[in-house]
Amino acid sequence: MKPAQVEAQLLRVLSDAISGLRDPRVPLIVTVERVSVTSDYSLARVYVSAMGADMPALIDALTHARGHLQREVAAQVRLRRVPLLEFRSANEAAFL
To answer: Would you name any one GO CC term (predicted)?
Structure first.
C-alpha cells in the first residue's frame, strides 16, 4: 500500500476512534487534520485540532489513549505492523 493510502485510512479510522473516546479532556469535536507516516511505517504523526480546547491536555489525553487507538487501527487497517501513534497540535509549526 502506498503511504498516501495508509495516511488516508489512518485519518478515517482515527477520526472515528477519537470521537468515541470518553475522556473529559477530549472535546466532542476533534478534527484529525493530517496524518503522516514515516517511509518504513513505524511512526505515524497525527495532527489534531479542536476549537477552544486546551491543546496540551488534549494531546496528553490522546497519548494516554494511544494503546486503545492503536488497537482500533490494527483491527481496521491491513498493515504488517501498526505504526506508533504520535499526537501533535495541528497549528504546531504549520506541519513540520
So the answer is: cytosol
All cell numbers assigned to 83:
505504526
Query: Rounded distance, CA 72 to CA 74, Å?
Result: 5
Domain boundaries, the chain: 3-91
- Given this structure, which CATH class describes domain 3-91? alpha beta
CA 14, 78, 7: angle at the middle one, nearest 5?
45
Closest CA to 47 of 22, 10, 81: 10
pTM for the model stands at: 0.90
Low-confidence ranges of the chain (pLDDT < 70): 92-96
Q: Identify the pLDDT of residue 95.
A: 45
